[in-house]
Design a protein that fits this description.
Layout (H helix, E strand, L loop, with lengths): L5 E5 L4 H16 L7 E5 L5 H15 L5 H10 E5 L5 H11 L5 E5 L6 H10 L7 E5 L6 H14 L5 E4 L6 H12 L12 E9 L8 H6 L1 H19 L8 H14 L8 E6 L17 E7 L9 E7 L6 E8 L8 H4 L7 E7 L2 E10 L7 E11 L6 H11 L8 H16 L5 E3 L8 H6 L17
Parallel strand pairs: 1-2, 1-4, 2-3, 4-5, 5-6, 7-10, 8-15
Antiparallel strand pairs: 7-11, 8-9, 9-10, 11-12, 12-13, 13-14
């Protein structure tokens, strides 16, 4: 599979390019990964010089220019095409600027409403043959729109040339879930309904929506975070072992998990809204959009039948952290009174995915003395803060090389939307919650029959 010989960046004057993509391209040039033309496309009437200043400003803001040679190299790769995405002349100019490049990667860092327009225009201009297209999330806003966007994309590009990007999948800690699951033999005997009591996933943010009021009014927490980011984590945790590590086998098993998810019901879905959300810019005064959601999910498969998965995410929660906690069932016979107490937590395996990358196993250990009493402490299997590649750096490199491992396939996209589709319109009203708490009390009631939420916090550590 040949690498792309040019990168076309639609939406080059936008915020995403400035905040995320330019710094990633700079690092790719610095490491010798990127050495092909980069053609920026946007409707703004900019000069190439202005674009290069924008690129430089982005890199200076993201951490500074510590390699002037790499910056000069990156700037020399850029050209710029200004024009309307609905005007065929824009794509004729793009084709001319591509010159001898025959395998471009077209990156759509543009509003979702323009995806179909640009994809169709690329096809009409004969710019899709041997090319790849990289599409930013959200890929649709419900099942119907996702199917239509998939139909349009497949009418122009082959499925293995469509890269649906979710920057969350490019994080080192997310990739480590896949490695940890299948590189270790001790997990397999207990990684099922016989030993797992429940699974909790929390993606919490201590900040609000900022200047994203207009976007959030059209999306909400379920669409913005759960249907994509958190469902991808669930798929990695719940999938069966792939036949090989090639991305086709991995995608097959992830898709099976999403297809086995039971569609959500309103009573298993709690929606919250932080106090003051309706006063944010570009937010309706009577808005019912959720900034928090918690849900109980079931996967109707042989491995996970009957095991509840509890997922939650929200803005203005108590802290910023993403964590997975797999809680195990208690021993069948409780020999020690302190371990048998109802309030005593069970053993668990914990993945901290951000801001750091931790894997820890919680086990009870006896306290010193003659009495058979103890406490639960964590044995750290991984505790590091690696200097990792940025997600966009990794994902852009993979897409240009044709490696789809960390991207999402058509069937998986539609299966995920099918799970949430029933509650996108038919749901209970939002419950208000105070800022810097863990959300509305109704979320606690959702999980009460299986214990309680394990809020990310400082835990006791078992010394080695």
């Amino acid at each position: 599979m040949k690498a792309s010989d040019a990168l076309v960046l639609f939406g080059v004057t936008g915020d995403l390019a400035h905040k995320m993509i330019f710094p990633a391209l700079y690092k790719m040039v610095e490491k010798g990964i990127l050495d092909v033309p980069v053609i920026g496309v946007a409707s703004s009437q900019w000069s190439l010089e202005r674009l290069r200043k924008r690129v430089t400003d982005s890199i200076e803001r993201s951490g500074g220019v510590d390699n002037k040679r790499a910056l000069r190299k990156l700037l020399s790769l850029f050209t710029y095409v200004s024009g309307d995405y609905e005007d065929p002349a824009t794509f004729a100019k793009l084709k001319a600027d591509l010159g001898k490049a025959r395998r471009p990667a077209h990156y759509l860092a543009i509003p979702p409403s323009l995806f179909e327009t640009v994809i169709k225009a690329l096809g009409a201009a004969n710019l899709a043959e041997h090319a790849r297209v990289i599409v930013e999330k959200p890929f649709g806003r419900d099942l119907k729109s996702a199917r239509e966007l998939n139909r349009v994309a497949r009418s122009v590009f082959a499925e293995d040339s469509i890269f649906r990007i979710d920057h969350f999948l490019g994080k080192e800690a997310i990739m480590n879930i896949l490695y940890f699951r299948f590189a270790n033999s001790f997990l397999e005997p207990i990684w099922n309904r016989n030993y797992v009591s429940s699974v909790q996933i929390t993606l919490a943010e201590r900040f609000g929506i900022g200047r994203r009021g207009a976007f959030y009014e059209t999306a909400g927490c379920l669409r913005d975070v759960v249907e994509n980011h958190i469902f991808q984590i669930v798929a990695l945790l719940a999938m069966e072992p792939p036949a090989t590590r090639d991305f086709g086998s991995v995608h097959n098993e992830k898709a099976k998990v999403l297809e086995a998810m039971r569609p959500l019901a309103a009573d298993n879905f709690v929606r919250g809204q932080y106090a003051g959300y309706r006063d944010e810019p570009n937010v309706a005064k009577n808005s019912d959009v959720e900034t928090f959601c918690a849900l109980q999910l079931f996967i109707d498969s042989w491995r996970w039948e009957g095991v509840p998965w509890y997922l939650r995410s929200g803005k203005f929660l108590a802290k910023t952290e993403t964590e997975v906690l797999v809680e195990f069932k208690r021993p069948p016979q409780q020999l020690f009174a302190d371990a048998a107490a109802p309030a005593t937590p069970g053993n668990y395996l914990r993945f901290q995915l951000s801001p750091g990358s931790d894997i820890a196993l919680a086990a009870r250990v006896k306290s010193a003395g003659s009495e058979f009493v103890g406490t639960q402490k964590e044995l750290y299997l991984l505790e590091e803060r690696p200097a990792e590649d940025t997600p966009y750096e990794l994902l852009l490199g993979d897409a240009m090389n044709g490696d789809g491992t960390l991207f999402t396939r058509e069937d998986a996209v539609e299966a995920a939307w099918a799970v949430v589709d029933p509650v996108l319109k038919h749901h209970h009203r939002v419950r208000q919650y105070k800022r810097h708490t863990w959300g509305p009390k109704e979320a606690d009631a959702l999980i009460a029959s299986n214990g309680h939420w394990h809020n990310p916090k400082l835990r006791l550590r078992l010394s080695s």
